[in-house]
């Protein structure tokens, strides 16, 4: 997915490939390319990020990975992780790095009571590994989206700031 995304970006940016149908009367091709790259990146972050983080966590918690009593917890974490990565990617793409720090700190505060629980240190390490893997994926995607927007549709961020 990531290779396809990068290839799409290179084709649109440097080969100036035109779409099969001419939508220039509706929206410029560079704006269409930006929208496609952004949506594709967010899809990779949502779906691919879930596999990426799950694979990392499974390697670091092999004892509990097949525990049926924790499957409900994993399902909730799966959807929370998708939403978290999408939000963080959008925040990075818009250049609001302060909000990124705020969201990660808030996540730690919300889960802080579990740090003292029966799972203790093992849970802290598991939590940190999962959070860092998820945030890394979101930052990389957010920077890619930001670079795409700045390259193909530079007025978008200016217009967005003016509107906000």
Characterize the structure shown.
There is one protein chain. With 164 residues, the chain is mostly helical. It has 6 helices and no strands. The radius of gyration is 19 Å and the shape is elongated.
Entry summary:
With 164 residues, this protein is mostly helical.
Integer-rounded radius of gyration: 19 Å
Strand content: under 5%
Termini separation? 33 Å
User: What is the count of helical runs?
Assistant: 6
The shape is: elongated
Poorly predicted segments: none
Q: What series of H and E elements makes up the topology?
A: HHHHHH
Helix fraction bin: over 70%
Q: What's the average pLDDT?
A: 79
Oligomerization state: single chain
List how many beta strands DSSP finds.
0
Structural class: mainly alpha
Largest sheet at a glance? none
Write the layout of secondary structure elements.
Blueprint: H1 2-14, H2 29-60, H3 71-93, H4 97-115, H5 120-152, H6 155-163
Helix pairs in contact: 1-2, 2-3, 2-5, 3-5
Keywords:
elongated; 164 residues; 79% helix; mainly alpha
């Amino acid at each position: 997915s990531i290779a396809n995304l990068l290839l799409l970006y290179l084709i649109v940016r440097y080969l100036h490939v035109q779409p099969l149908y001419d939508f220039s009367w509706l929206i410029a091709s560079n704006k269409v390319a930006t929208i496609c790259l952004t949506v594709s990146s967010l899809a990779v972050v949502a779906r691919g990020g879930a596999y990426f983080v799950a694979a990392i966590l499974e390697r670091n918690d092999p004892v509990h990975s097949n525990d049926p009593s924790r499957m409900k917890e994993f399902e909730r974490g799966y959807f929370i992780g998708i939403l978290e990565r999408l939000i963080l990617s959008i925040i990075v793409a818009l250049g609001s790095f302060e909000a990124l720090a705020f969201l990660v700190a808030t996540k730690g505060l919300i889960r802080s009571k579990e740090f003292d629980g029966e799972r203790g240190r093992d849970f802290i390490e598991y939590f940190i590994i999962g959070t860092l893997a998820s945030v890394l994926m979101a930052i990389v995607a957010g920077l890619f989206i930001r670079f795409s927007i700045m390259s193909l549709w530079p007025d978008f961020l200016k217009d967005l700031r003016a509107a906000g």
